[in-house]
Amino acid sequence: MQGPFHMVRSPERQTESHAYQDSHRTREQSQAFVIHYNEPGNILGVELAKCLQDGAIVAIQDDRVLFDVSPAWIPYDEKWEWRLPRGPFVLAMVGKARIYPVFIIRMGYRHYRIEAYEPLTKFQCCPTTDGAAAAVLCSEEFARKLGIENPVTIEAMSLKTDFASTFQPKSMIKMVGADMTAAAAKEVYEQSGLGPDDVDVIELHDCFTANELITYEGLGLCKEGEAGRLSDEDKTTYGGDWVVNPSGGLLSKGHPLGATGLAQCFELNQQLRGLAGSRQVEGARVALQHNLGLGGACVVTMYRKN
After folding, report:
1. Which partner from 21, 109, 116, 175 sits 20 to 30 angstroms from 224, CA to CA?
2. Distance (Å, rounded) from C-alpha 284 to C-alpha 146?
């Protein structure tokens, strides 16, 4: 997708977006208003709309609303109203415009409450699901006996549980395992002699969108406070420095608790064996796994293809 954002009207319907008409408004003034235009198939950015948790986005540049895209399930003639969450995160950059996900708070006369706990929406929180997974561990001798090609080895593994710092000082970031993640990752890097720069593919515990960002920092992919930049610069996807959660992660697959960690193990082994199909990370030889359970334990594992 490329700017400038000139396509704000349908070729067949000349009804302009209310957001476009009021594009002189500041971001603060545009926190919530009714939108009359609704044909996302003819608006730049429709690809982004398909990826959204609650289905609606807005493009803002220099504190001006350029356009918004409503989800397809809203009827064409239906009026709908949105607002930005507190501290909105940037979904993507298109030219110089920032694309934000927004809450739909009204459709017609009906009010909606989509957020689980602002700024998180329901679909930024993984569902608990049913599932099962298994892994077979064996010695190198047994693997050779079976004629296993491209064996994957566990180079290092570390388990950490809650520290005193998990609870003091009061920090929700530490409460959800940031210290455990950092300590386990540090030990794994020391044991394996490998570091973040050696890793090709990562499966991490993205139980919530915010947890993925916290884990970037805990695993040493970036400094504290820089996780958002990794996402903005596409560092954690195909073509970036690492491919994170090629399986889709917990947000895509769900979270069957005990099976979650072994599902990550399976995905990374498939990646290192070159068996991941359309998800395959080209040339993957080193993989990092992060799994977390509150109350509290964290396991970090380093795999390598021989």
Report:
1. 116
2. 24
Residue at token pair 């950015």: 45
Query: What are the distances in angstroms from CA 239 to CA 69, 181, 280?
Result: 27, 25, 12
User: What residue ranges define each of the domains in the chain, with the CATH number in brackets?
Assistant: 18-123 (no CATH), 140-305 (3.40.47.10)
Interval 261-305: pLDDT, tens? 999 999 999 999 999 999 999 999 999 999 998 878 999 999 999
Query: What pTM was estimated for this model as a whole?
Result: 0.67
* Residue 45 DSSP code: T
Per the CB < 8 A criterion, the answer to whether 262 and 123 are in contact is no
Greater confidence, 190 or 62?
Answer: 190
Q: Could you give the CA distance from residue 300 to residue 289 in angstroms, rounded to a whole number?
A: 6
Instruction: Tell me whether strands 243-244 and 201-203 are parallel, antiparallel or unpaired.
Output: parallel
Q: Round the CA-based radius of gyration of the chain to a whole number and report it.
A: 22
